Amino acid sequence: MLGLYLHRDSVIHRLGAGVKMGGLLAATLAVLALPGALGALAAGLLGLGLLVAAKLPVGRVLRELRAPVVMLTLLFGCQALLAGTGWAETLAAVARFAALILLATLMTLTTKVADMVDLFERLFSALRPLGVNPAKMALMLALTIRFIPLLAEQVREVRMAQQARGVERNIAALFVPLLVKILRLADDLTAALDARGYDPTDDGRHT
Amino acid sequence: MIELRAVTHVYGDRPVLRDLSVSIREPRVAILGGNGSGKSTLARMLNGLILPSSGTVTVDGLDTRTDGRAVRQRVGFVFQNPDVQIVYPTVEEDVGFGLKARRVPKDEIARRVTAVLDRYNLTRYRHQPAHHMSGGEKQLLAIAGVLVLEPAHVVFDEPTTLLDLRNRRTVIQVIRELPQKAVVVTHDLDMVMDFDRALVLEEGRVVIDDVPAVAVPAYVARLG
Fold it and tell me: How many angstroms separate the CA atoms of B118 and B111, rounded?
């Protein structure tokens, strides 16, 4: 699954998560502020340069961008048809978002989830006065990333079990056992977190 | 020492453990029994994941009811399915999770993670996603994630059930070489033959408590 950390020995990988996040934010603002496709072009070239500098597989990363680009084209194409905006403007919008997705992908490919979680924990700590527990929010982020492939595996497993019993397409037949599996998984995960020393009352304040 | 005194546990109105009193001092103890005999519930009681409906469980003098967190620091737990206890996407991050949760300094985490990955031949997977590993490798990763915390005791809940022959052998060797005391819930009778003691549970009661050379044949005979 592309999008997860891909280990390489590069300067980009060694940069702090905060620096990369700040850079991504600055690039986003610049792309949105610059007129037409100029910002997109600059961000796209920057992204390609950084991909090479990070020693990442350029072709593979670009191929993974095809799906979001198709989706964006459909979205902005509909907008152009319905709202009557010009096609040049539509293409510029698609290019802008594609360039930003490239930069965001670069961030996740070169930053360990643990480092991103640390960063989010620091950022969320500003929300502590509102009752937000930054440690919990950060763990939630890590678990979401970790469990996406596991849930996909569970869907595949249930679907194959249904097909083996002659059920080809039936949402209820897929949904009910999947829900049971997910609830059981959540139960076991809670026990595992407990067993591994996670303290739900720890709000991330370092002592 | 792990000690259970008059432990009874009930799910709804179904008793799972009945008035159990056992002291565990030996380095290697097996818990055997059929499905629904109460083995897994007993295992989870040993580190306070489940509290008894009545009676007490103590680990080195700490009560699981009042000192749950301290007990879990002393007793590591390895689940049957490693997928449920792998929390972070990559191997290195996951092994470091428990240490991070205990706020161990970063350089100390790096040192201990490196040592444990090296010890269990997982160094080559260090930066790899855990979901790309085989079942056996995931089980080793789960064990590494527990052992990096340096517990005094480790409880294994059916650690070889999902493994092929080669990985089963590896995990058995790992358990054999552990410096910690280990309690192993299992159906794998060959595995426990060189253990110090075997308890056989039936309907929530200990029906056999002896060295494996005596307990295992007696258990097999009971099965008929």
Answer: 11
Which sequence spans correspond to the domains of chain B?
A: 2-223
Stretch 101-120 of chain A: residues touching chain B, C-beta under 8 Å: 112-114
pLDDT tens string A24-64: 999 999 988 887 788 888 889 999 999 999 999 988 888 88
Long-range contacts formed by A164-173: CB under 8 A, 24+ apart = none
Q: Report how many helices (DSSP H) and strands (DSSP E) chain B contains, helices first.
A: 7, 10
| Inter-residue contact B72 to A195 (CB < 8 Å) | yes
Q: Which residues of B touch A156 (CB under 8 A)?
A: none
Beta-sheet pairing, B197-202 with B205-210:
antiparallel
* Run of H or E including A27: helix A17-33
Judge: B93–A112 Cβ closer than 8 Å, yes or no. Answer: yes
- B2-223: in CATH 3.40.50.300: yes
Q: pTM of the predicted model, to two decimals?
A: 0.79
